[in-house]
Write a structure and sequence with these properties.
The structure is a single chain. The protein has helices at about 15-20, 30, 45-55, 95-105, 110-130, 160-180, 245-250, 315-320, 330-345, 360-365, 365-385, 440-465, 475-490, 500-515, 520-540, 550-575, 600; strands at about 35-40, 60, 80, 155, 185, 190-195, 200-210, 215-220, 220-225, 255-260, 265-270, 290-295, 315, 355, 395-405, 405, 420, 605-610, 620-625. By secondary structure, it is of the alpha+beta class. It has three domains: about 10-25 and about 40-260 and about 405-465, FAD/NAD(P)-binding domain (3-Layer(bba) Sandwich), CATH 3.50.50.60; about 265-400, Flavocytochrome C3, Chain A, domain 1 (Alpha-Beta Complex); about 475-600, Fumarate reductase/succinate dehydrogenase flavoprotein-like, C-terminal domain (Methane Monooxygenase Hydroxylase, Chain G, domain 1, Up-down Bundle), CATH 1.20.58. The strands form five sheets. Strands 5-2-1-9-17 form a five-stranded parallel β-sheet. Strands 11-15-14-12-13 form a five-stranded antiparallel β-sheet. A four-stranded antiparallel β-sheet has the order 16-10-18-19, covered by helices on one side. The longest helix is centred in the last third of the chain and has 25 residues, at about 550-575. Its main location: membrane. It comes from Mucilaginibacter agri. Keywords: Cell membrane, Electron transport, FAD, Flavoprotein, Membrane, Oxidoreductase, Transport.
């Protein structure tokens, strides 16, 4: 199958305007006849559902949480990028576009990335109009700061709660449409299957998590805005409920998965403290604006970090990457931390952390200024660790965080299944092999507020003529039976091991063999180990409880998807014989440990097609064509 990204012709700066000028429209009287299902109520899902309902479409909104406000977008802390050049420091749409392309190690589509930068300024105006309390200068102007991988200040922020504040803006827009009767919300519902009729997405099968009831829902188009799959590692910055099931079930119905092995490890998380943990806590990357990262120069140093004198500290990011220093991109900063920890220079109880030190900033700016910028983050750190970070360094460590991979989508954010759209972190579209900090909230909002409201109606315009599909269609019956059969299998399993056991085992296996670094040997072994784990899961799983309210049953479905996804991640990493961004193959590095890209053979986006259980997935390639930037060795030195 040939992949057609449907990128408009013409100059890069004109592509999006040209698309909007020629997109098909649906007149207001006809919009109410068309139904759209939106799965997920984070920034991408809530903004898309609210925007489409505002236009007049009938929208059903689904989330597995008890409130759409509890979507994981609330966890994003540091900020949202926009090329507004408020600091007059040389920023522009093109500069932001180039930083993002370079940050992703030249493994993303030019047209999508340029659109992201183009729409960024619009988003800030939209958010301010919604009442998002961005930080402001003394005179009232919006303030901004720097994030990793850039040399300008383009990150707008609301202390360390930016995701929460943006989500409240999207949530109130969604609730307004619900009160008007244009959106019907289904909380505590989990999508378990996509329904495809004549090759087009026409609905979903969902399970009411409070009753166990299986429900059918039909629509003219389906939008998946269900976030990323970083929780496949078990220990990650994501909430326990985050999962990959919606996109994975769509994948098994024909939607291609892209860039699945591109997983970002965030450099500023709290380190693991023991085996009891189920997640790791994120500390905002914004802290790297004023915090300096270091480890003891001497391996196995047993002194407390605050007792180690200045001359015995190795500020390794400043040493290795002087141009960007502590604001080096996430993939590079995380690998550099791992390299120092592996060399025996780690600190903390498990020797698995590095120091993030604010003493110099406090000395230069005063404690009150640092408090003004980061007080809630310092408070959170003290609550968790009992340590006052104003007086001694924070301890941080890399942790699985963001997935650049996801469902393959074209320029319109439509997957390889017509009528199925994927927004935000659920798609692969904008970040290449590494995401720059504060581009996540931006992509989710831009997809939902500014892109989908043009591209989904462009598809729906032709659906007016098509025959309306209802939940009585045989495809719904078939999909429902598949869902019920799987749930029955789980409930009848007679093993002795919990779903959590398999999730933890898979997570450790992936961290060790397909984590911050990978090799042919480790990936080959991981694939073998995951196949064995999948067999064990079939035979040894134990589910307590029944088919009604049962979190163990929910977990089992998510873990079975993770096991299949984990295998594809390793296979994708094995076939990409280069190092790029967050994909670091040990065989492809310079003598001083930097990534070696292979543009001749791997300048493409991998798109994997499901060929059935037990069969190898088929690789399709979307070549990446760079007409506006020159492929260069990515350097932050």
């Amino acid at each position: 199958m040939m992949l057609d990204a449907k990128i408009p012709a013409g100059d890069l700066a004109d592509k999006w305007d040209k698309y909007k000028e020629h997109a098909k429209l649906v007149n207001p009287a006809n919009r109410k006849k068309l139904d759209v299902i939106v799965v997920g109520t984070g920034l991408a899902g809530a903004s898309c559902a609210a925007s489409l309902a505002e236009q007049g479409y009938s929208v059903k909104s689904f989330c597995f949480q008890d409130s759409s406000r509890r979507a994981h977008s609330v966890a994003a802390q540091g900020g949202v990028n926009a090329a507004k050049n408020y600091k007059n420091d040389g920023d522009s749409v093109y500069r932001m576009f180039y930083d993002t392309i370079k940050g992703g190690d030249f493994r993303s589509r030019e047209a999508n990335v340029y659109r992201l930068a183009q729409c960024s300024a619009q988003l800030i105006d939209q958010a301010v109009a919604q009442g998002v309390p961005f930080a402001r200068e003394y005179g009232g102007y919006l303030n901004n700061r720097s994030f990793g991988g850039v040399q300008v200040s383009r990150t707008f922020y609301a202390r360390g709660q930016t995701g929460q504040q943006l989500l409240l803006g999207a949530y109130q827009a969604l609730m307004r449409q619900e009160s008007l009767g244009k959106v019907k919300t289904y909380t505590r519902h989990e999508m378990l299957e996509l329904v495809v009729v004549d090759g087009k997405a026409k609905g979903i099968i969902a399970r009411d998590l409070l009753t166990g009831q299986i429900e059918r829902h039909a629509a003219n188009a389906v939008v998946l805005a269900t976030g990323g799959y970083g929780k496949v590692y078990y220990l990650s910055t994501l909430a326990m409920g985050c999962n990959s099931s919606a996109i994975w079930r769509a994948h098994k119905k024909g939607a291609f998965m892209s860039g699945v092995s591109w997983i970002q490890f965030h450099p500023t998380c709290l380190p693991q403290l023991g085996e009891h943990q189920s997640k790791l806590t994120l500390m905002s990357e914004s802290l790297r604006n004023d915090g300096r990262i270091w480890v003891p120069k001497k391996a196995s140093d047993e002194r407390e970090p605050k007792d180690i004198p200045e001359e015995e500290r190795d500020y390794y990011l400043e040493r290795k990457y002087p141009a960007f220093g502590n604001l080096s991109p996430r993939d590079i900063s995380s690998r550099a931390a791992k390299e120092r920890i592996d060399a025996g220079c780690g600190v903390g109880a498990m020797k698995n952390a590095v120091c993030l030190d604010f003493s110099k900033a406090i000395k230069e700016q005063g404690k009150e200024k640092i408090k003004e910028k980061y007080s809630n983050l310092f408070t959170m750190y003290e609550k968790i660790n009992g340590i006052n970070a104003y007086e001694q360094p924070m301890l941080i460590s890399p942790a699985a965080h963001f997935t650049m991979g996801g469902l393959w989508v074209d320029y319109q954010l439509m997957t390889t299944i017509p009528g199925l759209f994927a927004l935000g972190e659920a798609n692969f579209a904008d970040h290449g092999a590494n995401r720059l900090g504060a581009n996540s909230l931006l992509q989710a909002c831009v997809d939902g507020y500014f892109v989908a409201p043009y591209t989904i109606p462009n598809y729906l315009a032709d659906e007016l003529k098509a025959e309306k599909v209802t939940t009585d269609h045989p495809a719904f019956e078939e999909a429902e039976q598949v869902v019920k059969a799987q749930l029955d299998r789980f409930l009848q399993s007679k093993g002795t091991l919990s779903a959590d056991y398999f999730h933890k085992t898979l997570g450790k296996l992936l961290y060790d063999k397909c984590g911050l670094s990978r090799s042919k040997e480790s990936l080959t072994q991981a694939i073998t180990d995951i196949k064995q784990l999948r067999e064990s899961f079939k035979n040894d799983l134990k589910i307590t409880g029944d088919g009604t309210v049962n979190s163990e049953l929910e977990k089992a479905g998510r873990v079975t998807d993770y096991l299949e996804l984990g295998e594809l991640m390793c296979y994708d990493a094995l076939t990409r014989e280069e190092s790029c961004g967050a994909h670091f193959r040990e065989e492809y590095q310079t003598p001083d440990g930097e990534a070696v890209r292979n543009d001749q053979d791997f300048c493409f986006v991998s798109a994997w097609e499901w060929k059935g259980s037990g069969a190898e997935e088929e690789l399709h390639k979307e070549p990446l064509v760079f007409e506006n930037v020159e492929l260069a060795v990515r350097s932050y030195k």
